[in-house]
Amino acid sequence: MNWKEKFPHFEPELTELIEREGVFKTFRAGDIIMRTGQYIKSTVLVLEGRIKIYRENPDGGEFLMYYLGPGQACAVSMICAIQSATSEVMAKAEEETEVLMIPVHLMDDLMKEYKSWHQFVIQTYRSRFDELLSVIDNIAFHNMDERLEFYLKRHVSVSGKKTIQVSHQQIADDLNSSREVISRLLKKMEQQNKVKLHRNMIEWTEA
Question: For the chain, what is the domain count?
Fold first, then answer.
């Protein structure tokens, strides 16, 4: 795979530096990439797959923040790397995921010397901030059926696929609801021809 195609706006000199200094790594589905309280040694560029960014409460419950897909980067790892701070969130591979890890000691030089990297970091911050605003709006101002539809659309947008490999229980955990409520709402969406339900998979059918 030509990883440069995922980040076509990087200058040739920048891609050469990243390729020389970065580390390619593959995570299996379910692997934890980043933990709460962990010092960040690298920032992560996603090449293939999907990463879930979430908060975890003391009881082990999860609160979904956003997903990262190919061509995107983890804003949290960038911030923590620049500030030498620990992570306040968890990151987990939702499927087999390939990433390019850039060592933290390069961050200052990349920001100063490469305009495309500086713009990429700013855009990454802005995109993740906008996503968090959408999550807050959905929690504060929308019913569960609207939040569920937003959740599914976000999956489709990140992965670029109409099929979503996820169980009803996982959706319930992500949306802080119950499996029974999610199953009922999904059935309603199926009757509205928005989705087709399969075992541990949902197919988005609405145009």
Answer: 2
Residue-wise pLDDT for 145-184, tens only, equals: 988 998 898 888 877 888 888 889 988 888 888 889 999 9
How many whole angstroms separate alpha carbon 142 and alpha carbon 120? 32
Domain that holds residue 199: 143-204
Q: What is the pLDDT of residue 119?
A: 94
One domain, residues 69 and 115: yes
Q: Please state the pTM of the whole predicted model.
A: 0.73
Q: Identify the bridge partners of residue 54 per DSSP, sorted by sequence position.
A: 64, 90
Last-in-domain residue among 110, 139, 168? 139
Comparing CA positions, the residue from 122, 162, 3 lying closest to residue 71 is 3
Per residue in 131-149, pLDDT tens? 888 878 877 778 899 889 9
Tell me the backbone φ, ψ of residue 101, rounded to 5 degrees: -100, 125
Q: For residue range 40-66, what is the model confidence (pLDDT) as tens digits?
A: 888 899 999 999 998 887 776 778 888
Rounded CA separation 56/62 (Å): 5
